[in-house]
Amino acid sequence: MAGFAAVSLTTLVVLLAAAVYQTELPRVLTIGLGLGRKTEPLGSFPYTCRRIEDERLQACEDMWLSERSRQLFLACSDPKGRTQWHANLARYNASGRSLRDAFVALDIDEPVGAGFRTRTLKTPGFTDMLHFNGITGHDDYNGDIRLWAVNGKPSVDPVSGEFLDSAKVGANVTVELFRLNAGEGGAGPADELEHVMTFHHPLISTANRVAAVINEDKPDFWFTNDHGQGRVGWRYHLSSILQTGDVSMCRRKACWKVAEGLRYPNGLAKGHDGLIYVPSSSLGVIDVFEHVPQQGFKKLHQIVTDYSLDNLSVDKNGDIYAAAFPRPLQLLRGADDPFNSRVPATALKISKKGDGAYVVEKVIEDGDAEVLPATTTVLHDAKTGRLFFSVDIWTGPGGGAVESSQVLAYPVAEILNKQSSGEESC
What we know:
The chain is mostly beta strands. It has one domain: Neuraminidase (6 Propeller), CATH 2.120.10. It has 8 helices and 26 strands. The strands form 7 sheets. The protein has a 4-stranded antiparallel sheet with strand order 1-26-25-24. A 4-stranded antiparallel sheet has the order 2-3-6-7, with no helix packed on it. It has a 4-stranded antiparallel sheet with strand order 8-9-10-11, with no helix packed on it. A hairpin with a 5-residue loop joins strand 8 (132-139) and strand 9 (145-153). It is globular and about 55 Å long.
């Protein structure tokens, strides 16, 4: 979830103090606090913007596109509930938590009015509650669609069934695997998901997001622990300084670390090149790893973006899109007051060239927070050229269910054609 939004103001102060002794103060000021950064208004970019208004599209932290079925799956919640309960933000008021987290599917090739055909998916057979963080998915070879979700639930006493004080013991974090079974000719429009299994392990402690390994039909996955094994207390709050973040791997009931010593590793992604891309919210870099069986991760590159980063997504062409925060401190305020805050947003594109070098470019930025929310995921639909944006918290004036719609679509190729013919952008 949202990079620096999960780092308390106290942590930021301590981080600044530590940086003085680590000669990282200029970098922390720019990336962590956004000081001295000049942002660009939305009108500087040749894009026309439209918001997809739907009361079901609220507090959608993450999303994944099924290229084969053309369904966009989102992990949505309740913005008010997210201010009370959010394990990755150290918000532990279980009584105020969202009770309506659900997968929402959009058929992005089926426009309906100003939006798309939209469905909230049922999960029969799953008797627990969902409290989303990151999700990912895969179009399986047999036509099925599988979805992995990080689920940060309140901890419960196993005997009495009463809530424990999660501020003292931490949240009960699991990874849930769901499946949309293939019909004739492949998985069609989803109405419900089959719950396949729950992954519960001590190493799944502060899980942020999952990247599927994809080895035949096995459920193996990698995931980031953004605060490492420090669920609560000083180990949690000082995780970025102590570099306790990690990437771990799970294979059914077994989990183990494959990389550690990371500073707030966020929404990782597996590239088409088989490499694992892990963004750091604290350092503004993307570490590139190769998975070496029996050994763990081997670091190959570090891509410098100079932005606090959240989730990564990989499009059909293999390009990586990153949600970035030009002013993370404003994001902190947005997390406290999601209906009355304006938080700038930036989308970055990372391309890999033939010589193995990476190129980072700013795709769009809303420095004045006119239209874009504080984006947590940016997804590029290579087929149509559209960009979709989603966000965990609604950050805009007004409020209300319809106003807090979280997904935005940008028909980039169509926009560029309009611009070339003299039509105005937003």
